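INFO batch 0412 | record 1 of 1 | parsing
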Amino acid sequence: MAPRRTLGAISASAALLVTAVISPAAAAAGTDPTAASRVTTERLVWFDGFDGATDPWTVDGAWQRSTLSEVVAAHGTDRRQAFTRASGTIAVAEATDAALAGSLTSSPIAVEGGDELELRFDSHYRARGAAQTGTVTVAFDRGAPVVLRQYAGSDEESAQPRLRVVVPAGAKSMTIRFELRTEGAAGSWMIDDVQVVRPLRPLADDEAPKATVDVFSDIQGATTRMRDLVLPGLRSLPHPADTLVVNGDLVSNGATANYDAYLSAFRAGGGDEYGTVVSTAGNHEFYGWEGSDVYLDRFLDRTGMRGVGGQGGLWGEVLVDGELPLLWIGSEFYDYAAKTGAGPFVELSDEQFAWLEGRLAHWREQGKPVLLFSHHVLPYSVSGTYARFYANDFGADTERFAALVAENPNVVMLNSHTHWSAQLNDWSVEQRPDPVLARGATIVNTAAVTTMYGPSGDWGISPHRRPANAPVRMFRCVVGPSSGRRELR
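INFO prediction complete | emitting tokens
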């Protein structure tokens, strides 16, 4: 997955608009079962996540291996806990108590002269106290180091830098080095999941998509913004989509009047122009005192979902424009009277889980990219999911659902629920529930039409003010062309 963000031209709302596209050649590649790796990922040249049976790193100085929970237990939070990309063992250089100088150097990686590669790594850099400098370098055939990136006095939380590497003619090997130096007690640097990939060629801006999907979520009463900004903004994009996904929390609670207001605004904003509208169930659809079954029936009836997707509407599948598999899931029960807005939020029957498992296996065997929609989130995935409120959305289903996602790196899963900004570094991540995996499914945060949220203290969340005249962010998830590239724009 190669995410890139571009600024939309529509202003006044910071809601996220997602457009997912599959290009013609990628669709053709998907018919070949041997093409799965081409469709789902770029070519992986080298990977190490600090969890393997062999250790390809040489440590000089204060770098150590640990886990995020161990680092937080030893040194406290102070934003360390926000490294949502961390999985399993990580490398850490911690200068909280004293000056530090140390480097972490990989063993030689086989390369070819003229290669155009990309170095990617999960990174959480904290600047504190004394002056500090972080440096990323590569060296070819034991030659002089080439600086790819330098860090100094600014934080960069839970990021995945993507650094271009051009291999000199005749070079046969490359080493990677991470180095942190501080003049006194200072901050820290945590690193995980280091990759060298051969990125696929950029997509042409004028390339016509084969399939397009528009997405927004979490309206919860912000119907004016949806009617006047979000829907018109989506319809003004090039290559208008015929499919729309509204990924949960359409209403603030399950009362009939809220559906009346939502549907009226939806129609007035042009929502009926879509040929297919998929609405997923969030948690707010179950809020109120009439009972889970009443609210679930009301959601399915008022949204018209019973006839969509072939499974009764709460979960299902459509093939967008005959090319792109789009799947969704939804909770089958929530006891608001007992939980009053607290998690877990999701209960998946064995029937629903078996259906999802079968459909993902089918498309994986076909070598097809898949869009999977879940309103709710897995912990330690996208922005904010370190917070305690998001720690247990899936309850008893967390382990099996996370394992299933991990088995399908051809999946792009779009999650909502958090309301966190789509401008953060971890708005899109590769999720590795099993930290030894070199490939992970891509998970995307769809932000919210309604109130934006952010951190409150170490583990809490609270509403955050949107900047005045903040632009709408537009994203496009592209699969293809012949090389099978996927992008978010």
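INFO post-check: The CA atoms of residues 34 and 129 lie 53 Å apart.
INFO record closed
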